[in-house]
Design brief:
This protein has 128 residues and is of the alpha+beta class. 46% of the residues lie in helices and 20% in strands.
């Protein structure tokens, strides 16, 4: 499936760079697992500007956004913003997977299993 190039707000580039330098422990740990095409050969980018947002991790080939949510995502206001963000990204046929910071820190094996299950399903759908 040929994916559309997703536009992004160029003003977010510097902020994305800052976020890459100020990653949470969960983001750092997950990045160590998916960086360098370690997951089935897919290339992930971190703190990737998409539309008016910055995705924690993004794989163009899979159309996959992975978010590692800290405690601030538990607040009602942030939850509403997360739903709007997901809706906007889904309009570009992207799938969003969310994990909590604690899940990534304490249960990496199951986080990776969930991501791998998504990849395997996509490969089966696309006949890869």
């Amino acid at each position: 499936m040929k994916r559309k190039i997703i536009p992004y707000n160029k003003r977010l580039k510097d902020f994305a760079r800052k976020l890459r330098n100020d990653s949470t422990l969960g983001e750092i740990l997950l990045w160590k697992e998916i960086n360098g095409k370690q997951l089935y050969g897919y290339d992930f980018h971190r703190q990737k500007p998409l539309l008016n947002y910055i995705a924690d991790f993004y794989c163009y080939e899979l159309g996959l956004v992975i978010e590692v949510d800290g405690n601030y995502h538990n607040h009602d206001e942030q939850s509403i913003l997360d739903v709007l963000r997901e809706k906007d990204l889904e309009e570009y046929d992207l799938t969003i997977m969310r994990f909590t910071e604690q899940e990534v820190r304490n249960d990496m094996i199951n986080v990776l299993r969930a991501i791998e299950a998504y990849i395997i399903t996509q490969q089966e759908i696309n006949g890869v």
